[in-house]
Amino acid sequence: MGVYEALGVRPVINARGTLTALGGSVMDPAVVAAMAEAATAFVDLPDLHRRAGRRIADLLGVEAACVTSGAAAGLTIATAALMARDRIEAVLALPDTTGLPDEVVVLKAHRMLYDQAVLVAGARFVEVGVASAARIEQVDAAITDNTACLFYAAESADTRGSLPLAALAECAHARGVPVLVDAAAEIPPPDNLRRFLDEGADLVVVSGGKELAGPQSSGLIIGDRRLIDFCHANSFPEHSIGRGMKTDKETIAGLVKAVELWVARDYSVIFDRWESLVAQVLDALAGLPGVTAERGFPTEPGIQPIVIPRAYVSQAGRPAAELRDALLEHDPPIAVGIEQDRLAINPQCLRDDELPTLLAALTALLRPPR
């Protein structure tokens, strides 16, 4: 009996993406093996932490990196680092920010559910503009001596109220303020890791358990070497706000191996496969009465990565939520997304051997009763 069966949990066919609620991603056997090997010995954990960061930075071609227990923890640790730096009294005092710059300037359009992680460190948001508009002059006016950083949510880059990261970074840097970017689910494309830094970000936070396919409870902060040193000072295993955000030796080893595998991927081949999976879904549903099936890309903020093609499916007279729920009741359960009252089928995590089950379930659900 398998571990999930013993607990009464049914494995899911994931046609939705690298969502935390579905387990992030499935690790390569080599990643699992690295974690198992790491579990067999004791090590100097601070030394492992920093050496792993250097190895990952070399692999990614960035200045420095810090392993964290997920992207949300990365946001908390990075924010703490930009407030307390490596001053031990300040590090130990957080989330009490008395005497520290603790304001985080953010566009109104870039507020989102995950930014609570910034507040955990003790910071306060200073919002700029409205959800539909903002001007760089407003950003400049919001920066004061109490500003710790400017926060930019990459998922909100294309919203009406956003401004270009490069322009925001230029404004912030002119006032001596660093820029923190949340890019948790912004790969692919793979060059996004460098792009945000090239456009002026000082620190970028990425999930290790999504497209990187590392342990789900892993993440990365990449960027400026001095600021990454501050991140280490505010991270596990130091006594700091990040002490409880534990990155164990197994997770660290697994993420290093995952990054080694990731940098060797050929995304031209991967995108061709994703396109093929989408095309097969569309072909299977073509001609079904009342069914519309088309290829497209996400347009709603918060649905990433936007460069992966999706199959969007709807049926006249049937709400998308009803169809989604029916697929979740299938054996095995099938998870799909919903966008604009259409099923959104994302090939990112779909295995080839799962496609026939998905297609059979979809056609049975959408075919008119005889």
From TrEMBL:
Pfam families membership: SelA
InterPro entries per record: PyrdxlP-dep_Trfase (IPR015424), PyrdxlP-dep_Trfase_major (IPR015421), SelA-like (IPR018319)
Keyword Phosphoprotein belongs to the record: no
Gene Ontology molecular functions: L-seryl-tRNA(Sec) selenium transferase activity
Modified residues (N6-(pyridoxal phosphate)lysine): K210
Keywords on record: Pyridoxal phosphate, Transferase
SUPFAM superfamilies in the cross-refs: PLP-dependent transferases (SSF53383)
Cofactor(s) listed in the protein's UniProt record: pyridoxal 5'-phosphate
Organism superkingdom: Bacteria
Entry EC number(s): 2.9.1.1
Family statement: Belongs to the SelA family.
Record-given protein name: L-seryl-tRNA(Ser) seleniumtransferase
Originating organism: Microlunatus parietis
